[in-house]
Amino acid sequence: MPSVSPRALFALNLRRLRLATGLSQEALAERAGLHRTYVSSIERGERNVSLDNIFRLAEALAADPRDLLAPERKAGSK
Amino acid sequence: MPSVSPRALFALNLRRLRLATGLSQEALAERAGLHRTYVSSIERGERNVSLDNIFRLAEALAADPRDLLAPERKAGSK
Lengths: 78, 78
Hints:
The structure is a homodimer. By secondary structure, chain A is mostly helical.
């Protein structure tokens, strides 16, 4: 069982990947064709994001959609 | 851009992983706490599956949720 919920895990991964690209939530939202407040609520772990939006967000981040489901990283690990 | 839609890709991966476990759609649905007709429609690529259900299906298959988003396999490749 995951130590965090799927929504919390997705939130962490989205935030990590977004910050790595240097995009603001607003810029990411615009690229992905989503609303800024929706992206914000995803990053707070409040949303049960759908498959289509997972792929939209990944494309906007130039990331593999699977990276948004990556397991939680332990502190100190790479 | 993917050559198939996210929903079609998910459908292919779900079916492949389910058949690899030897589970029927009905048995998978029961394990995942979902309805048999819902699993069936996912495998027809008709559903915009949510994050929570992606993780439920993966757990029922003892698979990594990321495997359900794996890119399409070319015929003849491993």
